[in-house]
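Supplementary Methods, section 5.1.

A reviewer requested that the exact input to the structure prediction be made available. We therefore reproduce it here, unchanged from the version used in the analyses.
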Amino acid sequence: MGAPQPREALGASLARALRPVLPDDDARLSVAVLRLDDAGREIASYGDEATFDTASIVKVDILAALLLQAQEEERELTDDEHSHAKAMIQESDNESANVLWRAIGQAPGLNAANEQLGLSSTQGGAGVHWGLTQTTAKDQVRLLRAVFGGEGKVPSRGSAGLNQESRAYIRQLISEISEGQDWGVSAVADRGWALKNGWLKRSTTGLWDINTIGQVKVHGRRCLISVLSSDNASMRSGISLVERAAKVAAGAVSAHARRWPGRSERSADGAL
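The structure derived from this sequence is encoded token-by-token as follows.
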């Protein structure tokens, strides 16, 4: 018998799997993924350091910031805040996002919340421009982990992080996205997904930012996926790109876990 095949790093597996998906034009792509149920596993990413406009995926972050502030003030959300949160997440309503962006204190409020949540590479957009918040794919998986991870753990009074009630509230809203906005990571699985998408046509170039973040179940395992893209020629081509990337990323980490089970590893940026 020959020597056993060397174990491939998860980041390298992800990069290799994504190679056929990478765009032929000038579009940019970054992907991060985490199998949430695998103890000790870190986030795998491709395009680790690349930053992108969030467009509307920042609305999940805005809601997380609002909930963190409410926790610190030891209060419940008001009826108006609930109404705006529902419209902002489920229908991607921009006017509601404007209201809640102001409520959290715009970029300074978002940045302070992200420091608590462990997002190290996200910077709130200037002034009223929440959609131009800059982020990385890996930071978006960190945000998802703050929402979907830590089951059964309730932060103590004054501690950082979303409590169980806040996490459940966000999970509920992003599991009930309006029809027509339920593309993206939902391409990985027919059901059991929760997501938020973002799309923005840049006035300076006429090109599109298309992003998708969320949780899906692959072979019964919870998987957090973030796919960010920019400079897409059209919204349709951008959606096609991020959906293909999400499916490939989910398959890559699942195949890697089956091939090398029971082993934890650190993340690796899959440079090609």
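Strands lie at 28-35, 44-46, 52-53, 134-135, 194-201, 208-218, 221-232. These observations are discussed further in the main text.
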